[in-house]
Predict the 3D structure of the following.
Amino acid sequence: MKVILAKDVEGWGTIGDIIEVKRGFARNYLIPKGLAYEATDSNIRMVQEILRQKSRKLEREKQRALETAEKLKGLEIEIKKTVGTTGKLYGSVTTSDIAEALKEKGIEVEKKK
């Protein structure tokens, strides 16, 4: 039986791959768990559309990341933290500290990124 993988399945393939599996494996495991769809024309078109949408989303995110990287190029920020007598830092510099320092320079960055 031919199925289209809806998710990456270790040992079988990645999302969008059309693979041949035994009917029982497809009907009892892959399809009920939402890992695959039966390889009909409509399902093939649906999976292709989902992959196109994911590709466009990744391209937009990549473009935003490149724009942010260009803004950060050559930028220096200074984060003040307390240190001990031996010069060791108390605590750590967190992503929130970096995001806040960048915000002061006029660059909005999510602390997760």
Remarks:
- The mean pLDDT is 89.
- The first strand starts at residue 2 and ends at 5.
